[in-house]
TrEMBL record:
The active site is at 125 (nucleophile), 274, 303. It comes from the Bacteria. Gene3D superfamilies: alpha/beta hydrolase. Pfam families: Abhydrolase_1. It comes from Rhodococcus hoagii (strain 103S) (Rhodococcus equi). GO terms for molecular function: acyltransferase activity, transferring groups other than amino-acyl groups. This is Homoserine O-acetyltransferase. Residues 54-182 form the AB hydrolase-1 domain. InterPro entries: AB_hydrolase_1, AB_hydrolase_fold, HAT_MetX-like.
Amino acid sequence: MSVARSFSLGRFTTEFGVDLPGAHLSYRTHGTLDRDGTNCVLLPSYYTGTHRSYEPWIGPGRMFDPRDWFVVAVDMFGNGLSSSPSNHPLPRTFPLITIADNVRAQRALLDSLGVRGIALAAGWSMGALQCYEWAVRYPSMVRSLLPICGAARCSDFNRVFLDGVASTLTADPAYRSGTGPPVDGLRAFGRVYAGWAYSRDFFDRGSYRDVGYDSIDDLLDGWANDHAAMDADDLTAMLDTWRTADVGRGHPGGFDAALGSIGARTIVMPGTTDAYFTLADAAREAALVPGAELRPIDSELGHIAGRPGIRQAETDAIAAAARELLTDPPLTHTPETTAPRH
């Protein structure tokens, strides 16, 4: 069985021109790359997740069977496994890392593995943000695209949530002084986050019992306890990555043209009650991607809809979409006639 590995990027220069010495990506592969190097399924990690978070989707008879596909689950910068403040010599000097930075680094990783084409780029939440960037930045490499409960950019409304939850950390004196873990701020971070993660119907219906909580207080305490064990600087670094997400930045024609350049066969799967990446935003973005299908996940779980390992019926719906994308012929890809954006 494959184990997690580390890929050295050496001195990596970010989108905004800052050097990150000793940069590395953590990743895990499942299965074997075919002779053509084109049976790759790419799964970029999401906020507070790791490559392990996608394991419910991977395995014999599951959504991504390693007997058929070469699955690469890669950790985004800032998640504590790839280069992050928590493993950086000076955590508070860790630079802003963008979604584009993650994708450029992932391209170097895939090149080193011999991958010549991505059969499917799929991701949940921030994983979806990275998949959109992949399809725009390297259109000739991505055959199909499956963004789940994500977006092609961070909306103003989404930014309100991010700035609000970040303030729970900056309000903690321990965080501001850097004298120790801001436990109070981290616990508040988790409790505030929970209120945005789920929908009102989730609470009104008592659906929290379906995901392992006895009461609303139990859920809030659970989220507080989970986040109290996390690294505040890592959380902040990934929030900055999320906040600055935009596939149109640096594209000659802007956001609409960037989405219009996607040549991958695409199914967009938003959650119907997601407050982060709304159904309306997903519909507007899908309409800009040539030939894309909008296939919402009807769920009261809010943003948590479709998250790996949470609800089997939703996993089954995602798996059905993945099967279609992996068997349908690709659309005509837009050739890379110019050097990729940096």
